[in-house]
TrEMBL record:
InterPro entries: Acyl-CoA_dehydrogenase, Acyl-CoA_Oxase/DH_mid-dom, Acyl-CoA_Oxase/DH_mid-dom_sf, AcylCo_DH-like_C, AcylCo_DH/oxidase_C, AcylCoA_DH/ox_N_sf, AcylCoA_DH/oxidase_NM_dom_sf. It comes from the Bacteria. One of its GO terms (molecular function) is acyl-CoA dehydrogenase activity. It holds the Pfam family Acyl-CoA_dh_1. Its cofactor is FAD. One of its GO terms (cellular component) is cytoplasm. Belongs to the acyl-CoA dehydrogenase family. GO terms for biological process: fatty acid beta-oxidation using acyl-CoA dehydrogenase. Keywords: FAD, Flavoprotein, Oxidoreductase. This is Putative acyl-CoA dehydrogenase family protein. Residues 132-207 form the Acyl-CoA oxidase/dehydrogenase middle domain.
Length: 396
């Protein structure tokens, strides 16, 4: 166990797994960062499967889920997922990427034994990808940051449910084999497990977005009379929002873990550049304007790391962690944006090229500030809590 892992109290098993993951990502995955199979809508499925095969051989595939089906604690998961994020391709290779990681967690927590065998098992084995169908087009008045606005409907029909609606920003839908679809019944929100592809789920288009790390990109979807057997509903009709919270709080946190790893690596690259590059008679790092930016990066990275582990500890108590994950998502995404921006600035013209991953990390972190709830939505939610707590303290 490293001195760093001892300081932040990482268990021996997590430290051992994390060390193997870090070595694999740095030595085996990083050389693929210029692979021609990387496109605007993410790495191709061919590349993803090649990387997963390498991870399987190295015994680091889905490392946060134990051989007996158990899950590392959230604190242990942080140690592992931060290391998997040291390359934008690391989470794909290690099968710790979104949306699969969050979907696996949800199924592990609330799926029936039959669902786990049919849907979860091939996901854990890295044999299939998944998608989470929740967000809807804003121009149609659908659910975005406010899932209570959901317009997609589900109606019972014998021993099936029939689903109709539109979805957008559905990460990984193109090429996914498993889907979790949210829809609204007369009882409230519902979740369904579905096999993909299905002719009733049509990909209208895959959008061109600022980020490019997730296979399949982000799609606009039309669901037209999708028939789902009743036994493929997660839980009971009307329980969908409850299950969404089971997934969303940990998922916000694991995003923070992975992108923290990416920014650690970007800062390493920028620091190496600043020490090697000469300007005005001395290394860049000796110019205060540059050296201070790198110093500020160390501060932001450490604060982000501490927030991640604090929130992980809250979730490990069994708490839902909605407030804590909101605070962590805001603090970490904003801190990492500062880090990524400084890395680009330190490297100057080199920082805006694709010669290193710094440029991609900057784009990915900019998108991270929006997905899983924009900063402003989380602040609004926290402000509402402040008001509720104040009223409670006044006895009103």
């Amino acid at each position: 166990m490293s001195t760093h892992d001892q300081i932040i109290h990482i268990s021996d098993r997590a430290a051992e797994i994390a060390a193997r993951v870090e070595d694999f990502v740095r030595t085996t995955v990083a050389p693929y960062e210029k692979d021609p199979r990387l496109g605007a809508h993410g790495p191709s499925d061919e590349l993803a499967q090649e990387l997963k095969a390498l991870a399987r051989h190295a015994d680091v595939l889905t490392p946060h889920i134990l051989p007996d089906g158990g899950h590392l604690t959230h604190r242990e998961t942080a140690a592992v997922l931060i290391r998997s994020g040291l390359s934008p391709l690391g989470p794909i290779a290690c099968n710790t990427a979104a949306p699969d990681e969050g979907n696996m967690y949800l199924l592990g927590q609330v799926g029936s034994p039959e669902m786990k065998e049919r849907f979860l098992k091939p996901m854990v084995a890295g044999e299939t990808r998944s998608a989470f169908f929740m967000t809807e087009p804003a121009e149609e008045g659908g659910a975005g940051s406010d899932p209570s606005m959901m317009l997609t409907t589900c109606q019972p029909d014998g021993n099936h449910w029939v689903i109709n609606g539109r979805k957008t920003y559905i990460t990984g839908a193109d090429g996914a084999g498993v889907g979790i679809v949210m829809a609204r019944s007369d009882d409230g929100a519902c979740m369904f497990m579905v096999d993909l592809p299905d002719p009733a789920i049509r990909i209208d288009r895959v959008m061109d977005t600022i980020d490019s790390s997730m296979p399949g990109g982000h799609a606009v979807i039309t669901i037209d009379n999708l028939r789902v057997p009743a036994d493929q509903m997660l839980g009971q009709s009307g329980e969908g929002f409850k299950y969404a919270q089971v997934r969303l709080s940990p998922a916000r946190l694991t995003h923070c873990m992975r992108w923290l790893g990416a920014c650690i690596r970007a800062n390493e690259i920028a620091s190496d550049y600043a020490n090697r590059r000469q300007a005005f008679g001395k290394p860049l790092v000796d110019h205060e304007g540059v050296g201070f930016m790198l110093a500020e990066n160390l501060i932001d990275l450490k604060q982000a790391e501490l927030m991640v582990y604090w929130c992980a500890d809250v979730l490990d108590t069994g708490a839902l962690g909605t407030v804590e994950s909101s605070m962590t998502k805001v603090a970490v995404s904003e801190a990492l944006m500062r880090v990524a921006d400084r890395c680009v600035q330190v490297m100057g013209g080199q920082g805006v090229t694709a010669d290193t991953i710094v440029e991609q990390v900057f784009r990915e972190i900019r998108a991270f500030r929006i997905y899983d709830g924009p900063t402003e939505v989380h602040k609004w939610s926290l402000a509402k809590k402040i008001k509720r707590d104040w009223k409670a303290a006044q006895g009103s």
